[in-house]
Each structure stands twice: as structure tokens, then as C-alpha cells.
Amino acid sequence: MSKAEKTKAFIIEKTAPVFNRKGFAGTSLTDLTDATGLTKGSIYGNFANKDEVALAVFEHNRQKVEQIVKAEMSKYTTVREQLLVYVDVYKNFLKYPFPDGGCPILNTAIEADDTHPELKEKAAAAMLAWKNRIAVLIKKGIDQGEFTTQDDPEQTALTLIALLEGAVMITKLTGKINFRNAIMQSVENMINAL
């Protein structure tokens, strides 16, 4: 890795929690310089603008969550166990190196919906890729006879994502862990009923 690549990676790593907690609009250049200890010139010497930093940070945070889920799924052999990893990770995210501020897809989707088309596009692509990964797993479970469901894998995948992200949003909004636990129990029941 060149010095420039290392500096870019450093900026992304240090500003990732700031963007994920404060959002694009709420993150200032001062926040970026405070988080990195670098000057404005150093940041903009590596990135064209704040948009470019935000897009790289979103990808960094998204990959972090994806890596956690993949690592946990690799511990299991059945599709059901692999799907239940989502319940464990989203219910107990503090035990994992989850991005500070919560789910980057949810955070970015909510903020970027009306304010930042490029971030919205990235969040939408990430959500659709997530949906596709879950649908493929469900189809695999059906094909292997592990699941008896006749439900559409894509519809089931979207429902699972909506429940997971809804649980995060409701818990962040209300501060009620028991709400998250109740929704996660519904997700677990849904997976076990497949």
C-alpha cells in the first residue's frame, strides 16, 4: 500500500464512525479534521470533497457489517443456522465490531433519501445485494429440502430485512431494548417456520 493509499484508508477508518453517527449533512469539515488529526488540505489532498469521503465511508461501513455476517455464517452448515446469524448479529451487535452508530444502510437510507442521490444509490444497491444474498440462501434451503415453505424467497428476504432494520430503527428511536428483542423473536420465528 502506498503512502497515499494508507492516508486515504486512515481518513476513511477515522471518519467512518462520525459519518455513521451524524450523517452526511451533520458531519462538518471540522468533524473530519478532529477525527483524523489532519488538516483540511490533507483530507482534500486525498479526496476531492466531502461527498467522496462519505461515499468511501459508506462502503467501508457496509463491508464491515457484511464481513461480520459472513464470518458468523461460516461457522454453520445449515441454511437455517446461517439465516439465524442475522438475529444474533442484529440483536447482539455490541459483541461484534459493528460500525459505531448502527447499521450504515439504515442510517444512510434515511438521511440520503431526499438529500443525497449518490449516497441513496449506494444504500439502495447495498440493500438490494443484501436482499439477493438472503433470497439465494432461502432458495438453497428450499432446493435442499431444508425448508418446506412455498413463499417467494425474494419476498421473504425483503420481509426479513424490513424486520431487522425496523428493529434497529425502533430501538434507536425509543431506547427500548425489549422492543428490539420482541422483533428479533419474530424474525427468529419466521426463519424457523420456513
UniProtKB/TrEMBL annotation:
InterPro entries linked to this entry: Homeodomain-like_sf, HTH_TetR, Tet_transcr_reg_TetR-rel_C_sf, TetR_C
GO molecular function term, any single one: DNA binding
Chain ranges of the HTH tetR-type domain: 5-65
Keywords, alphabetical: DNA-binding, Transcription, Transcription regulation
Chain residues forming the annotated DNA-binding region: 28-47
Keyword Transcription regulation: yes
Pfam assignment, any one: TetR_C_13
Coiled-coil region(s): none
Protein name: TetR/AcrR family transcriptional regulator
Provenance organism: Chitinophaga agrisoli
